[in-house]
Amino acid sequence: MSEKQTIDYPGDEIDVRWDKRLCLHIGECGQARGDLFVGGREPWCIPNAASKTEVREVVERCPSGALSYTDKSGAPESAPADNTVTVVYNGPLYLTGDLRIEGAGEDQPGVRTRAALCRCGVSRNKPFCDNSHLEARFEDFGAVGEQGPGLTETGGPLTVKPMPDGCLRLDGNLTIRAATGRVAWEGTTAYLCRCGASKNKPFCDGSHRAVGFKSE
C-alpha cells in the first residue's frame, strides 16, 4: 500500500491539509508564533489552537502550496492581486497569483495561489520543486537582466504550461522579481527555464535541447 501523500488536520471552524509531495520544509509554518504548528507534537497542526484568521494567515505563508485550508464558512483563499514570480537564490521559482498550472491535481488546492516550480532540471516531482537543487548544487543567484514589455493592467488568471521536454510558458499579467526583491520584468507572456542550463536565466534560451532535458 502506498504512503498517504496528504494529511488532514480538522478544526471546529477551519481544516488544514498538508501535501507531502509539495512540501519544501521552508518553515514558515513552524516558525510562526503560537501553537498552531509545533514540531515534534502529535498532531503537528492543531487548527483549534489559533483563531480562524490566524490559521488562514499562517497557511497562506507557505510558498509551495503544500499547506491549504478549508474554511467551514465557505470563504476560499483569495488570489493575490498581482501575479508574481520570484526567482529564488540557488533555488526554485516562487509563484503567487491566480494560478492555473497545467497538470496540477484537483487534490492540490494550494497551488491555485502559491507554488514552487523547479528550475534546476532534476526535480522528481516536475514541474514542482522537491529540493533536488540542494543535492545537485544548482547555482544561480537570481539576477534578472531583462525588463519586459510592461503591463497595462495587473491580476487575472496566470496560465502555467510546462512544455514537453522544454520550458515553462506563462501567459497572463505577470511581474518577475529578482532574488533581491527588485521588480525586474513585466509582461504577459514569458518562457522560463526549467532545465537549469539556460545562459539567460530565468528565461529559456533553448538550452534544454542541447542538454537533452526530459520533463518526465
Written overview of the protein:
The structure is a single chain. Strands 4, 5, 6, 7, 8, 9 and 10 form a seven-stranded mixed beta sheet that branches. Strands 1-2-3 form a three-stranded antiparallel beta sheet, covered by helices on one side. The two termini are 24 Å apart. The protein contains three helices and ten strands, in the order ββαβββββαβββα. It is mainly beta and 216 residues long.
Report how far the terminal alpha carbons are from each other: 24 Å
Biggest pleated-sheet summary: 7 strands, mixed
Question: What is the average per-residue confidence, as pLDDT, rounded to a whole number?
Answer: 96
Radius of gyration: 18 Å
Please give the count of helices.
Answer: 3
Morphology call: globular
Overall strand count = 10
Secondary-structure element string: EEHEEEEEHEEEH
Helix- and strand-based class?
Answer: mainly beta
Low-pLDDT sequence parts: none
* Beta-strand content estimate: 25-35%
The helical percent reads under 10%
Supply the key terms:
216 residues, mainly beta, seven-stranded mixed β-sheet, three-stranded antiparallel β-sheet
